[in-house]
Amino acid sequence: MISDDERERRLMELLALKVLGLVVHRALPDGSGELYYPQPDHPDVLSFRAWRTTHERLLELAREAVRRLKERFYDTGRREWSEQTRRYEIVWAAIPPKNEQH
Questions:
Q1: Stated pTM of the model
Q2: pLDDT, tens digit, for every residue of 17-59?
Q3: Pairing state of beta strands 24-27 and 33-36?
Q4: Residue 20 Cα distances to 13, 14, 44, 45, angstroms
Q5: Distance in angstroms (rounded) separating the CA atoms of residues 23 and 13
Q6: Rounded to the nearest 5°, which phi and psi values hold at 31?
């Protein structure tokens, strides 16, 4: 049985390929429809799947980097106005080493 996350990932892949014109939608008599790959080994389908896998790996690496940064920095609770972005930005500070913490 596939998980909800896997089902959602497959649906998103199918819809993206449909937008690219690489998936066919066929309406059924009961009003529902089905999507299928007319050529699952088509180079564009394969390259899209490879890109998607690479994208997911990069996203996971980015999440891991953010998690590691959160171990080293913390939100001070202060906000400062930024002229560059024209909005208030979070003020981050490094967490002091264990021997310097109270």
A1: 0.39
A2: 777 777 777 788 888 877 776 677 878 778 877 877 787 888 8
A3: antiparallel
A4: 11, 10, 9, 9
A5: 10
A6: 95, -15
Residue type, 85: T
Tokens 């500070």 belong to residue = 93
Query: How far apart are alpha carbons 57 and 75 in whole angstroms?
Result: 27
The secondary structure of the chain as a DSSP string is ---HHHHHHHHHHHHHHHHTT-SEEEE-TTS-EEEE-S-TT-HHHHHHHHHHHHHHHHHHHHHHHHHHHHHHEEEEEEEEEETTTTEEEEEEEEPPPGGG--
Q: How far apart are CA 16 and CA 47, in angstroms?
A: 13
